[in-house]
């Protein structure tokens, strides 16, 4: 049985994302080494790339916006889909949300969310449930950070967003206009200039926005 907690602690450092210095996350300092180690050391079939080990531009923008709007989250039920490191979910918990659930199909991500939540002194329920395919809990606020990078995934995410909006939830997306982001379906609330790494992105600064799903 692989010790996912030990793997994360051995291959990351507790760092603060540039746009959200209030939050500490277990992050990889370089992309390729942890990518290889996820495949080689864990030796588990079907594990996705370690997206959880990086603070992506869209997630940073979403977390920054949430922290800056803290007064509006008191008592809210929050769902973070494709949560990765849990950055947006942690921001929601720090901002006063009543219940925060973070979902990611990667078991390593769910372990990382638990470690990151503990490091920030907040309580988050993390799950590997695939909410894009099944029933998900009702929520006042639905958070989606940087999930529009592949067409099939983007289509599933959009269907999920529309379902949650039909249930009465407010859908907020953090995204720097990835290849399959349907900008015409959203309204930009605010923009941020997000420092990122050239190992993962095409520039050292990505212009990312927080978007609200149109009615």
Could you describe the 3D structure shown?
With 215 residues, the chain is an alpha/beta fold. The protein has a single domain (4-213), classed as Rossmann fold, CATH 3.40.50. It has six helices and nine strands; from the N terminus they run αββααβαβαββαβββ. It has a seven-stranded mixed sheet, sandwiched between helices. Helix 4 (87-94) links the parallel strand 3 (77-81) and strand 4. Helix 3 (57-68) runs parallel beside helix 4 (87-94). The radius of gyration is 16 Å and the shape is globular. The protein starts with a helix and ends with a strand.
Keywords:
Rossmann fold; single chain; 31% helix; 7-stranded mixed beta sheet; 9 strands; two-stranded antiparallel sheet; 215 residues; alpha/beta
Q: What is the CATH topology descriptor?
A: Rossmann fold
Total strand segments: 9
Query: Helix and strand succession?
Result: HEEHHEHEHEEHEEE
Question: What portion of residues belong to β-strands?
Answer: 15-25%
Q: Give the overall shape.
A: globular
Total helix count?
6
User: CATH first level: which class?
Assistant: Alpha Beta
What's the overall average pLDDT, rounded?
92
The poorly predicted ranges are none
Distance between the termini: 47 Å
CATH superfamily: Vaccinia Virus protein VP39
Residue share in helix: 25-40%
Multimeric state of these chains? single chain
| CATH architecture descriptor text | 3-Layer(aba) Sandwich
Compute the CA-based radius of gyration: 16 Å
Largest sheet: 7 strands, mixed
Which structural class is indicated by helix and strand composition? Answer: alpha/beta
Number of domains: 1
Major sheet strand order: 5-4-3-6-7-9-8
């Amino acid at each position: 049985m692989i010790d996912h907690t030990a793997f994360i602690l051995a291959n990351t450092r507790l760092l603060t994302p540039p746009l959200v210095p209030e939050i500490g996350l277990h992050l990889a300092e370089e992309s390729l080494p942890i990518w290889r180690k996820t495949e080689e050391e864990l030796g588990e079939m079907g594990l996705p790339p370690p997206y959880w080990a990086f603070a992506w531009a869209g997630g940073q923008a979403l977390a920054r916006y949430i922290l800056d709007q803290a007064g509006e989250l008191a008592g809210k039920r929050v769902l973070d889909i494709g949560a990765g490191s849990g950055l947006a979910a942690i921001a929601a918990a720090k901002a006063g949300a009543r219940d925060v659930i973070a979902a990611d199909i990667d078991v390593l991500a769910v372990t990382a969310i638990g470690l990151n939540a503990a490091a920030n002194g907040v309580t988050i329920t993390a799950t590997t449930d695939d909410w894009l395919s099944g029933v998900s809990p009702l929520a006042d606020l639905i958070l989606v950070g940087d999930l529009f990078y592949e067409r099939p995934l983007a289509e599933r995410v959009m269907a999920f967003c529309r379902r949650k909006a039909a249930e009465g939830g407010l859908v907020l997306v953090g995204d720097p206009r990835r290849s399959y982001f349907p900008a015409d379906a959203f309204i930009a609330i605010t923009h941020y200039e997000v420092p990122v790494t050239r190992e993962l992105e095409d520039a050292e600064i990505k212009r990312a926005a927080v978007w609200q799903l149109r009615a």
